[in-house]
Design goal:
About 15% of the residues have low confidence. The protein contains six helices and eight strands, in the order H-E-E-E-H-E-H-E-E-E-H-H-E-H. The chain has about 240 residues and is α+β, with helices and mostly antiparallel strands. Specifically binds 5-hydroxymethylcytosine (5hmC), suggesting that it acts as a specific reader of 5hmC.
C-alpha cells in the first residue's frame, strides 16, 4: 500500500496537550468516559464573545430556528510525527495526504467498534477536519472530503501490517475504511487548546461545542460533528489566534 497504516484506534492515546486526558493502551481495553472537568469556567484569556457573535449571525441567517442535532461532518485524527508500531512507522500528516496521487488515500487501521461504525456512517461528499494528534501541538490543520464510502479494510488480513486482525474473516470482515481526498488547508492552524477554551465556555452558556466529542470521547480517532460544531470551529480560522 502507498503508506503505512496511519490511523490511531489500536493503541490510541490522548493528545499530549490535553491536560485532563486519560492515557489508555487501546480504545477497546478501556471504556470511553466523559472527561471530568475541574471547572466549567473558560481558561484565563478566553472569551465568550466569539460564540455570541457566531450565534447572532447564525440566528439571523436561519430566522432563529434551531436545527435538529445530526452528524454530517467528521474529525479524523492522524499522527504527523514518526512512531513505530510493530516495526512500522504509522506517521501520516496532511502533507503526506497531499503527496498522494490525486491527493486521495484510504483511511485504514481503525480498530475500535464505535469509530468503525462512524466510518460506516460516512456519506459521499461529506467533509471532515484533518486533525494532527499525539504530537507536540495537536490541532486542526485542514479539510478533507469522503470520496468513497465504507468498504473492507484490507490491512486486517495482512499479517505484516501492525493492524492485522487474525479473528477477522474475508467472508465477514470486521473492519472498514473509507477513501478521503484533500480539500484545503485551514487558513491557520487551530490548536486543541483554543478549541478547548471555547468548549469550556460553551459548557457554561450552551454554545455549540458544549458536547463536542473531542472532549467527551477524546480517545476516538474518528469523531462525528454536528453542522453547528463544524461551522463554529471553521469560523475560528478567520480569527487571530489568542
Amino acid at each position: 500500500m502507498p503508506w503505512p497504516s496511519r490511523k490511531r484506534d489500536k493503541g490510541a492515546v490522548a493528545d499530549k496537550k490535553e491536560p485532563n486526558a486519560k492515557i489508555a493502551k487501546t480504545e477497546e481495553e478501556t471504556p470511553d468516559k466523559e472527561e471530568e472537568e475541574k471547572s466549567t469556567k473558560p481558561p484565563a484569556g478566553s472569551s465568550k464573545s466569539g460564540w455570541k457573535n457566531w450565534k447572532k449571525t447564525k440566528e439571523s441567517d436561519s430566522g432563529g430556528e434551531e436545527s435538529k442535532i445530526t452528524y454530517c461532518h467528521w474529525l479524523l485524527k492522524s499522527e504527523p510525527e514518526s512512531r513505530l508500531e510493530k516495526g512500522v512507522d504509522v506517521k501520516f500528516s496532511i502533507d503526506d495526504l497531499k503527496a498522494q496521487p490525486n491527493q486521495t488515500t484510504f483511511w485504514d487501521g481503525v480498530r475500535n467498534y464505535q469509530a468503525r461504525n462512524f466510518l460506516r456512517a460516512m456519506k459521499l461528499g461529506q467533509q471532515a477536519f484533518f486533525y494532527h494528534s499525539n504530537c507536540k501541538e495537536p490541532g486542526i490543520v485542514g479539510i478533507v472530503k469522503i470520496v468513497k464510502e465504507a468498504y473492507p479494510d484490507h490491512t486486517q488480513f495482512d499479517q505484516k501490517d501492525p493492524h492485522y486482525d487474525s479473528s477477522s474473516r474475508k467472508e465477514n470482515p470486521k473492519w472498514s475504511m473509507v477513501d478521503v481526498q484533500f480539500v484545503r488547508m485551514t487558513k491557520r492552524f487551530i490548536p486543541l487548546s483554543e478549541i478547548k477554551a471555547h468548549h469550556l465556555a460553551h459548557k457554561a452558556d450552551g454554545g455549540p461545542l458544549k458536547n463536542m466529542m473531542l472532549f467527551t470521547r477524546q480517545r476516538l480517532s474518528i469523531q462525528p460533528l454536528t453542522k453547528e460544531e463544524f461551522d463554529f470551529v471553521l469560523s475560528l480560522e478567520e480569527e487571530k489566534p489568542h
